[in-house]
Amino acid sequence: MAEALQGLLVALRSIDSQAMAQAAQPAVAGAIAAYHTHAAALQQADVSPASLPPEIKAELARCRALYTQLRQLGESDAFTTQLWSNEALIYHLLIQSPYLPCILHEETADYIIRYYAMAAHREQPKAMQPHLDKLRAAAAERHQAFLAAHPEHYSGGNGAGQQGAIVLNLPELADEEREVEVTRLMVDYMRSVYPEFTFGYHTYAACPDGAFYDIQVLFPGLYTAADGTRRMVKYTVWFRTQAPRQQP
């Protein structure tokens, strides 16, 4: 873990331009992948911190020191400026591994992901479409089985967009209770149909006809855009939580 964090720090410190940001991506991805593998193994190990030998405690202390340096770098204005327009680095640092602590200000990280999640409502580049189609096809059988097993709560489409939204069939509830029920139904669906995803960002869409949608945005990897840059795949799952008004 310490060696991986050291490699990540070296790679990130090399970034002083967009050209260097592009060049650093393989090293960043590799370091985070290595950290993920070892952090997962450590989490699964049945050990007591008190029983660790001194040399391992020293390495854990080294990890903490390296993270402090990474955090100082990640919170700098210069680094944030370079990161903002580089979707591949955003994916590596914020999405690739749930074990890697955030090195940015949490508010900055939230704002960045919110920005790209909202972009998913309107962005459907041709180069990204094959990735979306593949993911939707892989989930199709689980989706159909889930809706068949819970017809009292779910109907509609497969969540591919506003027209194909999954309809949540909700009883009459007070606003607070309704919000809790919407969250429960969405979480149950996402865990069953997309069990491989550990992170999604929650957005909304309101329509002039009164319909309201809760949208889960997933970031399941990277694709190569038409200009040759690597960008995040933005995969949306639409839930209709309020029906359109009845026409007079």
Task: Provide a descriptive summary of the structure in words.
The structure is a single chain. This protein has 248 residues and is an alpha+beta fold. The protein is 52% helix and 13% strand. It is built from 8 helices and 7 strands. It has a 5-stranded mixed beta sheet, with helices on both faces. Strands 5-6 form a two-stranded antiparallel ribbon. The radius of gyration is 21 Å and the shape is globular. The model has no long low-confidence stretch (mean pLDDT 92).
Key words describing this protein structure:
globular; two-stranded antiparallel sheet; alpha+beta; 8 helices; 248 residues
List the helices and strands and how they pair.
Elements: H1 2-13, H2 18-44, H3 54-74, H4 77-84, H5 87-94, H6 106-119, H7 129-149, E1 154-156, E2 166-168, H8 175-193, E3 201-206, E4 212-218, E5 222-224, E6 230-232, E7 235-242
Parallel strand pairs: 2-7
Antiparallel strand pairs: 1-2, 3-4, 4-7, 5-6
Helix pairs in contact: 1-2, 1-3, 2-5
Characterize the overall form.
globular
The main sheet orders its strands as 1-2-7-4-3
Overall mean confidence score, pLDDT: 92
Number of strands: 7
What percentage of the residues does DSSP assign to strands (E)? Answer: 5-15%
Q: What's the order of the H and E elements?
A: HHHHHHHEEHEEEEE
Structure class: alpha+beta
Could you estimate the helical fraction of the residues in percent? 40-55%
Distance between the termini: 64 Å
Number of helices: 8
Largest sheet: 5 strands, mixed
Our Rg estimate from Cα atoms comes to 21 Å
Low-confidence stretches: none
